[in-house]
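Me: Here is a favour to ask of a fellow structure person. Could you put it straight underneath, so I can go through it closely?

Assistant:
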Amino acid sequence: MFGSVWGSSGSDVFTVGDFGAIAHYDGTNWTFQPSPTAAHLFGVWGTTGSDVFAVGDAGAIVHYNGTTWTAQTSGTTNALIGVWGNAGSDVFAGGDVGTLLHYNGTSWAAQTNATATSLFGAWGSSAGDMFAVGDVGTIRYYNGISWTAQTSGTTALLAGVWGSSAGDVFAVGDGGTILHYNGAWSAQPSGTTALLAAVWGRAGNDVFAVGDGGVILHYNGSSWSVQASGTTSALIGVWGSSGSDVFAVGDGGTIRHYNGATWTAQASGTTNALLAVWGSSGSNVFAVGSNLTLLHYNGTAWTAQPLGAAAIDLDGVWGSSAGDVFVVGGFFGVLHYDGTAWVVQSSPAPDVLFGVWGSSGTQVSAVGDFGTVLRGSR
């Protein structure tokens, strides 16, 4: 199963999943790339198609340099769930039990995080700061030098975070929890008790949150309102090319599209759960999910992309270019791709890594189990 997708353009897309699986889309066909790991990979992100990182189980981090994937030493065995960065030399990965890693372009290093809580979501601004959210209301903030705890005012699980700027950030989670940051975190009325799984926006006054039971919420800059989704299926991912071109995906192959006025169903051609959605434009969108499901939208219809059959799940991937990609997952190491082949790199720690993010190929971070934070440089 593939669980995360990222691309530098509509003809340069990566997806990662079970047992170290890595697939690449060149605008016409999907092909598997040699992977240096068998660990599940949960997240992938890059600066360009030749600088990509993926993260996953057991602290796995792999990197692609446009030619081959190679494993990188993460220093943890905790699962890493997400990855994000400002550049290839400033990448973060986060995951279970508060794990938080940073890559500086040379090596990964754990960052002092002072938490053993699992971290599930991360977002950062172009200024180089970063927010990570997780279990029991945990919120960690990185100012470019060190991580500190922020008071959330809740013990609810926080699943997703997004912001329009470092002073305008939203976090969503269990029980309909929505928090807003403008220098301090405060709760906002959501109108629902459903688990909110993801949040995305075009701007600070045009934000969407999705979750269980088909719940879709919209924020107009003043308040949140419930929108009619037309489904009761759990919605897990949300992305848009603009405020009037938004996609939400979820259980049972559910895809809903928003045109600025109403949400309507789109035929996905599958009943497999769709876990994430991303696109380079409104006419070039990808959705991924269970059982190697990968769909493409051309602006008119969704079609399945052939990936073969394999019980594979990679948890995290990110890169700075097509020849510099990292993947992490459930293995004791990091995968790195240099554009030709995948190579396993040893990990300095046995923790599972769930996420990876970077600002460039020489600044990457990974997060995972037990509050682990790694920062790497080269």
Observations:
- Residues 2-377 form a domain with the Methylamine Dehydrogenase; Chain H fold (CATH 2.130.10.10).
- Residues 307-322, 324-337, 341-363, 365-378 have pLDDT under 50 and may be disordered.
